[in-house]
């Protein structure tokens, strides 16, 4: 017995919107990064599911997922580097401390 | 597989060759060779502009993943020329103590973003488009956070990278649904299979949001002011012109190539975002004290004007869009070059009050700044007037009369805040006068090019005609 595609899509939608919700409510830079990672992973699931269930004759969706994972890793590396730089300058990674530019 | 295909992508291949030369030169150069580094990069980016323009034929490669034609080549050449202006202006900042050891990194990161933008324009497959967009925005985040020891730069960098990641996740989510309904990622095939069902409208909105972040249209503009203000001034110039221009071109291409069956839907989205961008950005710009922050809001409203050219989706619209970006580029680059020079001299952020009495100490720079501001505001003899006129004309021709009317009212409002700066420079007297600003030779060259552009692009009607003759996408 196979799992219906809807279940997988609901899983990815829930993951995605947990990410969106977290992005707007969390107050820590690393948590924000994790939330965007959640969103990107939800997208990868989506591509894999559509490929496996709707268009199994070609592999475009899987390939897209692979590239998505690779690019997400690169993004995380850059973001972490900048977060470390923020920590060195501000001695905190809390969003509350990042208000220098407004004034 | 036919490897000759790679060499048919002449702009990308020549850009990559220049990239590699600069990368190796950075490793091996010392002493006298090191001093030649900056001129070398200037010459090679200028050379790149011409190399890009050499092949204007229409062809597709890799089974339709890559497409090139005259219009796209011209857009790429504009981006390359903007990069040339940016490199010219970067000279003095790159030689300062905190950045001189990473001079090579700056060029390499700058050129990687340019490769990404080239692929954004030529991609006819969503995978290539996605990689292009990421290649354009990741090194950009590094550039924004380039001043390692400055608090503001790190803060701007983190704001830029997180919003850009968020935006690309939204965009990918949209693309995944398009893939689910059509089963292909090629633009051409997808356009034939799109029917405009609700899930595809959802995908369109998500995609528009992702690109809207890059263009910084109003509901998605939150990062703009902070990132522009905190980034090094040269990078701000690059971000506000080249990065934005590439995103606008890409949006136009994708809307026409993929979402053509859903024209009425995306026209409605653009209608709303354009009004919001122009109006809100104008109102916010009046309140800004810091010039770079002010320029950020000015660039948001300019993005709104560019969207007027996109909304019709016609060939006229494309001509007006390319012309607008070109004119906007020279005007904005001139202003940022002057801001950079002033900041370099006084060692702090430039406020509007800082410019009080600028005319008495620096009459020539004041004149250039005034011309550039007039061009941005759209005052007749300068190029900005004609670019605004063509943009309005294309939107009017497409039947958006109310939209053009609202944009016209906003032009008058924008005149007010551009003239506030002119007033500060000429009329207000300063308690503490600015010293006479010395620009570097490279900056002077870039200012001369910009001023020539502001005046000549408007007067020589042949420029618009040339762009118009490039043909369709």
Would you write up a description of this structure?
The complex is a heterodimer of chains A (103) and B (473). Chain A has helices at 5-25, 29-54, 60-90. Helix content of chain A is 76%, strand content 0%. Chain A has one domain: Helix Hairpins (Orthogonal Bundle). Chain B is mainly alpha-helical and 473 residues long. Chain B has one domain (8-468). Helix content of chain B is 78%, strand content 1%. Chain B has helices at 4-8, 10-28, 31-35, 37-54, 70-95, 103-122, 126-144, 151-182, 187-193, 198-215, 222-230, 233-257, 263-287, 291-312, 315-346, 358-361, 363-377, 383-397, 401-426, 441-459, 461-468; strands at residues 59-61, 66-68. In chain B, strands 1-2 form a two-stranded antiparallel ribbon. In chain B, strand 1 and strand 2 (66-68) form a beta hairpin. The model of chain B has no long low-confidence stretch (mean pLDDT 90). The interface between A and B is large, with 41 and 40 residues.
Short description:
The complex is a heterodimer of chains A (103) and B (473). Chain A has 103 residues and is mainly α.
What are the main properties of this structure?
heterodimer; A: 103 residues; mainly alpha; Helix Hairpins; 3 helices; elongated; B: 473 residues; two-stranded antiparallel ribbon; 21 helices
């Amino acid at each position: 017995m196979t799992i219906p595609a809807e279940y997988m899509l609901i899983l990815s939608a829930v993951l995605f919107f947990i990410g969106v919700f977290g992005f707007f409510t969390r107050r820590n830079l690393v948590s924000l990064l994790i939330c965007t990672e959640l969103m990107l992973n939800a997208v990868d699931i989506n591509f894999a599911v559509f490929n496996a269930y709707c268009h199994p004759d070609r592999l475009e969706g899987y390939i897209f997922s692979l590239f998505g994972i690779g690019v997400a890793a690169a993004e995380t590396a850059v973001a972490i580097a900048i977060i470390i730089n923020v920590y060195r300058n501000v001695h905190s990674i809390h969003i509350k401390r990042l208000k220098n530019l407004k004034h | 597989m036919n490897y000759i295909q790679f060499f048919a992508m002449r702009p990308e291949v020549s850009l990559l060759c220049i990239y590699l030369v600069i990368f190796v030169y950075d490793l091996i150069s010392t002493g006298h060779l090191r001093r030649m580094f900056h001129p070398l990069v200037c010459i090679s980016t200028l050379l790149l502009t011409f190399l890009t323009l050499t092949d204007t034929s229409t062809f597709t490669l890799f089974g339709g993943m890559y497409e090139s034609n005259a219009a796209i080549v011209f857009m790429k050449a504009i981006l390359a020329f903007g990069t040339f202006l940016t490199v010219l202006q970067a000279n003095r900042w790159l030689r300062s103590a905190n950045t001189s050891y990473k001079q090579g990194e700056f060029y390499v990161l700058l050129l990687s973003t340019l490769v990404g933008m080239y692929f954004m324009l030529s991609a006819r497959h969503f995978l290539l488009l996605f990689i292009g967009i990421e290649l354009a925005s990741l090194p950009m985040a590094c550039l924004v956070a380039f001043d390692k020891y400055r608090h503001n730069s790190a803060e701007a960098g983190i704001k830029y990278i997180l919003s850009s990641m968020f935006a690309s996740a939204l965009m990918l989510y949209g693309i995944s649904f398009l893939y689910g309904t059509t089963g292909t990622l090629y633009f051409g095939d997808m356009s034939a299979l799109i029917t405009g069902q609700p899930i595809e409208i959802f995908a369109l909105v998500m995609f528009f949001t992702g690109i809207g972040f890059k263009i910084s249209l109003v509901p998605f503009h939150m990062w703009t002011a902070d990132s522009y203000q905190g980034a090094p001034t040269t990078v701000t110039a690059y971000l506000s012109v080249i990065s934005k221009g590439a995103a606008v071109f890409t949006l136009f291409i994708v809307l026409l190539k993929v979402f053509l069956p859903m024209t009425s839907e995306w026209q409605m989205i653009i209608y709303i975002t354009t009004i919001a961008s122009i109006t809100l950005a104008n109102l916010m710009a009046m309140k800004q004290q810091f010039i770079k922050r002010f320029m950020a809001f000015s660039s948001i409203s300019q993005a709104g004007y560019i969207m007027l050219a996109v909304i019709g989706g016609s060939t006229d619209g494309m001509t007006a869009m390319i012309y607008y970006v070109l004119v906007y580029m020279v005007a904005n680059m001139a202003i940022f070059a002057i801001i950079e020079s002033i900041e370099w001299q006084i060692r702090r952020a430039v406020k509007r009050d800082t410019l009080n009495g600028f005319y008495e100490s620096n009459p020539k720079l004041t004149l250039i700044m005034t011309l550039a501001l007039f061009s941005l505001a759209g005052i007749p003899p300068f190029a900005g007037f004609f670019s605004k006129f063509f943009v309005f004309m294309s939107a009017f021709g497409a039947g958006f009369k109310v939209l053009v009317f609202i944009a016209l009212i906003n032009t008058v409002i924008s005149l007010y805040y551009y003239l506030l700066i002119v007033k500060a420079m000429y009329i207000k007297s300063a308690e503490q006068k600015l010293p006479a600003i010395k620009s570097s030779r490279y900056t002077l060259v870039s200012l001369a090019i910009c001023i020539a552009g502001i005046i000549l692009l408007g007067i020589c009607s042949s420029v618009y005609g040339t762009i118009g003759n490039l043909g369709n996408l």
